[in-house]
Design brief:
The structure holds two protein chains of two kinds. By secondary structure, chain A is α/β, with parallel strands linked by helices. Helix content of chain A is 37%, strand content 13%. Chain A has an eleven-stranded mixed sheet with strand order 1-3-2-4-6-5-10-11-9-7-8, with helices on both faces. Chain B is an alpha+beta fold. Chain B is 39% helix and 18% strand. The chains are: A alpha/beta, B alpha+beta. Chains A and B meet through helix 9 and helix 10 of A and loops of B.
């Protein structure tokens, strides 16, 4: 029998249904793994009591044959950006010290209704701002993977970010699956770094209500799982129209898992030439070529497409996202909740609280955003960025006239060593060069583990779909997954 | 009646524009389900959204949108079926989000107009620049504790309509008339209760001055949050004088925000350059553009109540009232309703006279509004009936009215009880007339000598003899008949 901590969602559901093990046993195994893996710092808050209680409830439902949700009894990690009722919620920021919400985010509530069992709150970059999970007030997360060769061999590696704790938890066998959020690549890039599947759904597919905001027009919750099928199952449990989120799409949730027919014959796959960048790592290029060949062999039609405004995406993103964050984070003022550092006046209190409460990366983005929105610069930065964003979205629209799915690498490199790029924000921002355009266009994107680097680290391929066509996207991703047959595990024992 | 400021260098005129914040009448707030009742215990009407808890999102309240459209239609304004909510960023302890959700370059309502009713029945049109929806802030309570400021978030997120006029007003009186008319319109529409003393209608006053006859627009100063019509007029007077003084002394007026000191009747600079705000407006990414079909506008248009201007026109046209009287009666919806109840089926001019010349004085004297009138519309109407059918004279009616004020009794009962019924019996009147003529031989001489004014003496005698109940018309006629023969 497979180790309980190696189970996928599908495997766990099957085992529970066959009474091979109970939800409580499944939860217990993961709680032990979570405790054993504490050196990875994947969790900010562990909630073993909640996990066991919900697992027992799940077992009771199963015993009685009561209606079971799509994830009944499956233990998951919850990115600590989702507000969870009665459980400390930090966004990995000092400024939310002691904040325990009296409410549950829609997505985590949906998952709970589906029977998922919360193991704890996963670490992340502070306010989801980062690509290496090194900006957390609660310390960096370590990647369960170690390089076997090359300059980083044996070093502690970053898990990617911002959903680094979620990725590490799933990759390290501490959770069957995890929630993530993706603003410019925060699900897909850590999924790639940790050798798991990460799906950013179409903007509007999952409710943002109760998810601590970074950049409202980009933030989107999604599943981080071991397989494409799991991503399909979990997305079904997370998604749905929410009248409490005005940007949530009033659309029915399809049966995503049913879309994984395995048949991709005739599917048109676009290869965007603009993603073939100068100085691109040859092994990333090789992996991408391999992906093309896999899909071709599976019967897909490969077509070159052009996304001409790709080169402006990162610059556009680093105007739009900071601009929105500069306003979204204004509410952390020390007045009503979280950290307050007193001062002689209201202004002093604000400055003390926000100066101490926010880390450097968050402060940097608030400053960039404030500058971009300020009088005299607004047109040159914010308005220009919005126009370019429209052009980028139009690029995709045009490409999707010809193709059904676009294939690209997920990230330009494998996981790098902890401490690297720490002092160079621009180098760090380049991690998201392949994922940001999708976010700006609001399209669904998925990272599928596709191979190992020479240094023995996982590499992901990204597939991008049409808006609200996660079904086709998942079908294509499934084909890549089958062809890649990626069954490597991180060096460490979970 | 031009308003002119006599300066040392010549005459100056004042240019006034008003920004009025009207609290929208709605059960729930603009973007949350929290209640909006005035005067509730602090922080008892606060939702998670209002308190800007992490992860909370605004959802537009359709009722507030309808109210804004309705008000826009009442201002004869352009309704924009697509508009955009924007964030206005600034830090303050009673602004939990750190930004106010407002509308910036794409408001829900565009240009419109408002007709001012001025002294002596004159009227004048003032342009409306725009109306937009926005959130109110909370309240900072500085007087609860010697050291600390307390925050009440009950008002946070309540919907406001900011109604911006064009700089079309030229005197404090016009500004006062504008506010009264705007208040009248929103009260007719039931979109805002218009209570300036409770803060549900607040006014920012933009004032500049220029040499009389000039068409330039000079730098304006904005006086914030003036909370009565009288204070607005005072603030304008003071501000205009101040600016004229600056120019005449060779200075320049600076564009700034000022506060009105109601005790001293002056405006004062807020002197907060360090807080010179850059609001960094940008479209709120939590909200989609606000769109609605034209059919919604049409539906609201078709259910609009009669507004003061239309009602005034009806009073003038159908009832034959003077524009001035009609304007006075329609200003408050309750007054107009009262008047119509009195006038219904009766002589409308007589009804108007009684309401304006008799009742208004009593109400003002007692400090009550018409909904608490000591005399009901039904009773006043009955009194007018008694005059019209010659049961009592106009003079006796005034006495009856006084008794009605004291007792609240119906006029018919009073007339009956007190025996005030007019004497129309010709025989009785003739007897009194004969007695008066017999007693006034000297006066008869004078009358016949050409002093017709002396007739009044005889009338007085007859009225005295009949305790004022003789029909004055009959008395006059009989006297003349007898004296002229």
């Amino acid at each position: 029998m497979t180790k309980l901590t190696d189970l996928t969602i599908r495997g766990a559901l099957d085992g529970l249904a066959a009474k091979e093990f109970s939800a409580a046993e499944l939860a217990e195994a993961h709680i032990q793994a979570m405790e054993a893996g504490r050196d990875l710092n994947a969790f900010i808050t562990e909630t073993p009591e909640i996990a066991l209680e919900r697992a027992r409830e799940s077992d009771n439902r199963r015993a009685k044959g009561d209606a079971l949700g799509a994830m009944d009894g499956v233990p998951i990690a919850m990115k600590d950006l989702f507000c969870t009722e009665g459980v400390l919620t930090t966004a990995a920021s000092h400024i939310l010290d002691g904040f325990t919400p009296p409410y549950e985010s829609t997505v985590s509530a949906n998952l709970r209704s589906a029977g998922a069992v919360m193991l704890g709150k996963a670490n992340l970059d502070e306010f989801a701002m980062g690509s290496a999970n090194i900006t957390s007030y609660y310390g960096p997360v370590k990647n369960p993977w170690k390089a076997t060769d090359g300059k980083d061999a044996g070093k502690d590696l970053v898990p990617g970010g911002s959903s680094g704790g979620s990725a590490a938890a799933v990759s390290g066998g501490m959770a069957v699956a995890a929630t993530g959020t993706d603003t410019g690549g925060s699900i897909r890039q850590p999924a790639s770094f940790c050798g798991i599947v990460g799906l950013k759904p179409t903007y509007g597919r999952c409710s943002r209500w109760g998810v601590i905001a970074f950049a409202s027009s980009l933030d989107q919750a999604g599943p981080m799982t071991k397989t494409v099928e799991d991503a399909a199952i979990m997305l079904g449990a997370m998604a749905g129209h929410d009248p409490k989120d005005s940007t949530s799409a009033p659309m029915a949730v399809p049966d995503f898992a049913a879309a994984l027919s395995g048949d991709v014959k005739g599917l048109k796959i676009g290869i965007p030439k603009e993603y073939r960048m100068d100085g691109m790592d040859p092994e990333i290029q090789a992996l991408w070529d391999q992906g093309v060949n896999w899909l071709k062999a599976a019967g897909c039609e490969i077509k070159d497409v052009s996304l001409p405004h790709t080169k402006y995406a990162l610059a556009t993103y680093y105007i739009v996202a900071p601009a929105e964050c500069s306003a979204n984070l204004a509410r952390y003022d020390g007045v009503r909740y979280g950290l307050r550092i007193p001062g002689d006046s209201l202004d002093d209190m604000y400055m003390n609280t926000r100066g101490e409460g926010f880390g450097h990366e968050v402060q940097r983005r608030i400053l960039i955003g404030t500058y971009a929105l300020s009088s005299g610069y607004y047109d040159a930065y914010y308005i220009k960025a919005q126009k370019v964003r429209t052009l980028i979205a139009n690029d995709f629209k045009a490409a999707f006239e010809d193709v059904d799915v676009i294939l690209t690498p997920t990230a330009p490199t494998p996981a790098f060593a902890l401490g690297e790029k720490q002092e160079d924000p621009v180098a760090m921002y380049l991690n998201d060069v392949f994922t940001v355009p999708t976010s700006l266009a609001g399209l669904p994107g998925i990272s599928v583990p596709a191979g190992l680097s020479k240094s023995g680290l996982p590499l992901g391929l990204q597939l991008i779909g049409r808006a609200f066509d996660e079904e086709t996207l998942l079908r294509a991703a499934h084909a890549v997954e089958l062809a890649a047959a990626f069954n490597h595990k991180p060096g460490r024992e979970g | 009646m031009t308003y002119v400021i006599k300066g040392e260098t010549g005459d100056w005129e004042v240019v006034i524009g008003l920004e009025v914040h009207c609290q929208v009448i709605s059960k729930a707030k603009l973007f949350s389900g929290a209640a909006t009742d005035f005067g509730a215990e602090p922080n008892t009407q606060v939702s998670l959204v209002d308190a800007a808890m992490p992860g909370m999102l605004p959802v537009i309240n359709e009722e507030c949108v309808r109210q804004a459209i309705k008000t826009g239609l009442g201002l004869k304004a352009q309704i924009n079926t697509t508009s955009v909510f924007a964030r206005k960023n600034y830090f303050y302890a009673d602004l939990p989000q750190g930004y106010q959700i407002s509308q910036f370059d794409q408001p829900i309502v565009g240009e419109g107009s408002i007709i001012l009713d001025l002294e002596g029945g004159a009227s004048r049109e003032v342009g409306i620049e725009r109306l937009h929806l926005e959130q109110d802030a909370g309240k900072s309570l500085h007087d609860q504790d010697p050291k600390r400021t307390f925050i009440d978030l009950n008002r946070t997120g309540v919907a406001l309509m900011e109604i911006v006029s064009k700089p079309d007003m030229r005197s404090p009186e016009e500004a006062g008339a504008y506010l009264r008319k705007l208040r009248s319109i929103v009260r007719y529409l039931e979109t805002c209760d218009g209570n300036m003393d409770q803060g549900s209608m607040r006014c920012d006053v933009n004032v500049s001055v220029r040499p009389a006859g000039s068409t330039e627009l000079r730098t304006r100063a904005e006086t914030k949050n003036v909370n009565s019509v009288r204070f607005v007029m005072q603030a304008i007077e003071h501000e205009a004088e101040r600016q004229v003084g600056i120019y005449e002394n060779g200075g320049e007026v600076v564009q700034e925000t000022r506060l009105f000191d109601a005790q001293k009747g002056v405006t004062r600079s807020m002197r907060s350059k360090e807080h010179a705000h850059d609001y960094r407006y940008f479209p709120d990414p939590d909200l989609l553009p606000l769109t609605f079909p034209q059919s919604l506008v049409d539906e609201i248009q078709s259910s609009m109540p009669e507004l003061p201007d239309e009602r005034k026109a009806r009073y003038v046209g159908d009832f034959g009232l003077s524009p001035y009287d009609a304007g006075v009666l329609v200003q408050e919806k309750d007054t107009a309703s009262y008047f119509e109840a009195v006038a219904n089926g009766r002589d409308a001019k007589l009804a108007a006279n009684w309401v304006i010349n008799n009742l208004f004085g009593v109400l003002a004297g007692r400090g009550v509004d018409i909904t608490n009138s000591p005399v009901s519309a039904e009773h006043l109407g009955e009194l007018i009936d008694l005059i019209s059918d010659d049961t009592i004279s106009g003079k006796i009616a005034k006495d009856v009215f006084d008794i009605m004020l004291e007792t609240g009794d119906a006029p018919g009962k009073i007339v009956e009880d007190k025996g005030l019924k007019q004497i129309t019996d010709t025989g009785a009147i003739e007897a009194a007339v004969d007695a008066a003529i017999a007693a006034g031989a000297a006066q008869v001489e004078q009358y016949r000598g050409g002093n017709e004014k002396i007739l009044g003496w005889f009338v007085g005698q007859v009225m005295k003899a009949t305790q004022g109940k003789a029909n004055p018309g009959q008395v006059n006629k009989l006297l003349k008949d007898k004296l002229d023969t």
